[in-house]
Task: inverse folding
């Protein structure tokens, strides 16, 4: 779990970490999830195309959340966007 936090800390702005820590408390220790091939790795739900379009058009600094589990979605080159 410490390792996960380090990964997140290295990839999101500082203010996001507050939200992340809050979510982590609510979501059983996992406040953020990687978006992989249009699927949230937190809840394993494939995002709707409308959500994918929104995420695609969002600025890189915008916090995007999973509509299903509300975790912060971490966008990568493998997100399928
Ligand atoms: Zn999710």
Result:
């Amino acid at each position: 779990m410490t390792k996960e936090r380090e990964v997140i800390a290295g990839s999101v702005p500082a203010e996001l970490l507050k939200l992340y820590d809050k979510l982590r408390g609510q979501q059983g220790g996992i406040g953020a999830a990687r978006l992989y091939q249009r699927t949230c790795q937190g809840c394993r739900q494939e995002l709707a195309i409308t959500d994918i379009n929104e995420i695609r058009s969002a600025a890189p600094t915008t916090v995007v959340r999973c509509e299903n589990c509300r975790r912060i979605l971490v966008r990568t080159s493998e997100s399928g966007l």
Remarks:
- Residues 33, 40, 42-43, 45, 66, 68-69, 71 surround zinc ion (CB under 6 Å).
